[in-house]
Model the fold of this input.
Amino acid sequence: MRELTVDLGERSYPIYIGQGILNNIAGLFEKHQLSRKSPMLVITDDEVAPLHLERVMALLREGGFAATACIVPAGEPTKSLAQLEGIVTAALEAGLDRSSAIVALGGGVVGDLAGFAAASFMRGIRFVQIPTTILAHDSSVGGKVAVNHPMAKNIIGAFHQPELVLFDIDTLLTLPSRQVKAGLSEVIKHGLIWDEAFTQWCDDNAEKLLALDPEALSYALYIGCKVKSIVVSQDERENDLRAILNLGHTIGHALEAVAGYGELLHGEAIAIGMVGAAKLAQQFGYDENIHTVTKNLFLKYGLPVSIPAHLDTGSIMNAMMHDKKFKEGTMVYIIPTEIGKVEIRKDVTVAQVRQIVELLKGES
Amino acid sequence: MRELTVDLGERSYPIYIGQGILNNIAGLFEKHQLSRKSPMLVITDDEVAPLHLERVMALLREGGFAATACIVPAGEPTKSLAQLEGIVTAALEAGLDRSSAIVALGGGVVGDLAGFAAASFMRGIRFVQIPTTILAHDSSVGGKVAVNHPMAKNIIGAFHQPELVLFDIDTLLTLPSRQVKAGLSEVIKHGLIWDEAFTQWCDDNAEKLLALDPEALSYALYIGCKVKSIVVSQDERENDLRAILNLGHTIGHALEAVAGYGELLHGEAIAIGMVGAAKLAQQFGYDENIHTVTKNLFLKYGLPVSIPAHLDTGSIMNAMMHDKKFKEGTMVYIIPTEIGKVEIRKDVTVAQVRQIVELLKGES
Ligand SMILES: NC(=O)c1ccc[n+]([C@@H]2O[C@H](COP(=O)([O-])OP(=O)(O)OC[C@H]3O[C@@H](n4cnc5c(N)ncnc54)[C@H](O)[C@@H]3O)[C@@H](O)[C@H]2O)c1
Ligand SMILES: NC(=O)c1ccc[n+]([C@@H]2O[C@H](COP(=O)([O-])OP(=O)(O)OC[C@H]3O[C@@H](n4cnc5c(N)ncnc54)[C@H](O)[C@@H]3O)[C@@H](O)[C@H]2O)c1
Ligand SMILES: [Zn+2]
Ligand SMILES: [Zn+2]
Done:
């Protein structure tokens, strides 16, 4: 088992990563002072429920925790105020009190929704993450929780740190292969923004990771969480440094929105976005090699590197205008300066981004 | 103009109280670094709008602030997730960004709803309170913001401190007399829990306050805010001391819920609750005088001191069981030990409270 602390002063918390660690859930809950007296609510979605819920509930019950389950529909539309209201209903019916905890068992959708429920129920109760997707290594660090509004993603939310994160590699074995790849896209991002050696390691270990080799996977998730946690510890509220985590996300989010959530997975969309950022780097005079390495890496992982031709450039640009990263009209853009390093540029023009979007349509 | 600082470290903020201070809104907004570049959203309700909105919008416009108004229906049901969604729509349409502010112009309903919108929009933007009810002196201190769930009041919310509070006594002149009395109930509460001399002053100045005499009103609101701010500064997150602010609220909230929101105003319900707490004090051996003084004070202000006979005791008790103040099954109750002092008791039984509820039905 690997252990990592996300260092946020009073709000610091540990991430446990390893094979079979769910078996010790009761011990870890006890260690982190989760209450056996107050009821607990386990949120999961209807795809994860048949695979992993029963086991988690049984382990909690055996461990003396009074847990009730609440199952939401799988998929991005579940991150809504309507589902939040449903969770609060379940929480009230289960009798949750101020010492209770909400446990998220699932991917980033469940984590973000359950996390916002924990942040706002009674103005904040305790929260535990049990991520079951690779992508959720990302959402399990940093405390960003949110639901969507019909007009904008993640626009209603909070910063709410969990008490602990329990990442059992075994739960990932049921993950569809497309989700595996999309999740690894965000792992690779953590290499690209911070750690050249890890990027190289990702290049060398693609086969192992794609085959969910436990040791490789556990290491990659550890480094992914580690990089994110270093960044977040230095800038919990996204005032400056934290923005580097958005590498590939400006274009990525716009693509997700325009394609209609579902056609492109988040990890796929940001892979395209990272290739775009590398292209932009070229235009700012940085090494061409950045673009080649980035693109080949994503190709190796079976991830898309070009924008589907039928997506309209105008619509993509429009979607970007609603992006939260436009602070007081200025466009903030994350650009790689070498492999493992990025910079936050504030001088990128809309015309430049439009050109990149056009170029990304021809990429292959 | 009176000024008061709510002392919360990094999150400290000033409350300005006085006649005509809205005229200087642009100056105060500038002093507190509200952005002229980013759009601002002013939330108000449809009863306050025709009385005060135009003036506020004009003053902001003249002062160079780009404000858009958003009008919600007046009344408690507006504190809902549905209205929150509507505000977020308005915020997105007005183009709010991370440097924007949401301004609440209205009573506690608008303050709580707009405050939760500010707390959760983009995971938290700036917030300004312009209270237009007496009761809102209470909600303007402490940063508690929330919406209701059909099953429970204030159950979905956050702690989000404003940048400043601008309390213009002139806006109170349009307040219906029943709202004046109900608001003064919460002012009196601040005397009862903390300040014997102020309680005496309230007894001596009832006529002036009920007539909205500017100097008396301004002083009373100042002391009310002051007491609350001292308590909140010592316990921002309601771990212990802050609970004393709930004097009268355990029964009060239950009465509001059972009567159906609207029949009893919040201030009226807690007046009855405070008389109940004084009765309970008697049973714990404290001076009988507490009950007499409390009851006569509320009678003087034209506030109710007994539970309407048609409200069912069983339903009232049931409503209390959903109350957030039941921590891990223990009943926490605030009881006066003398005028101007209270204690937090954790040993009050349901049977004792039921008896008080019965007694309160006979009170007259
Ligand atoms: N809070 C943050 O910091 C942060 C960071 C990145 C992404 N996110 C959010 O995360 C979400 C995406 O997360 P995701 O990719 O995990 O999506 P997801 O939660 O929708 O999971 C993807 C799919 O896999 C299924 N699934 C989950 N675990 C499974 C398992 N073990 N076996 C089989 N199927 C399983 C789910 O039911 C779902 O259909 C987005 O909403 C994004 O905004 C948040
Ligand atoms: N956040 C907190 O700490 C806190 C504390 C106490 C109460 N509250 C909340 O505050 C709410 C009650 O506040 P309230 O009593 O101000 O209610 P309110 O906001 O509903 O206002 C009462 C009525 O007066 C009208 N009104 C407001 N200002 C007016 C004016 N100047 N002239 C004429 N009419 C005016 C409103 O339209 C409304 O119909 C409750 O929801 C309660 O939960 C919150
Ligand atoms: Zn991402
Ligand atoms: Zn109150």
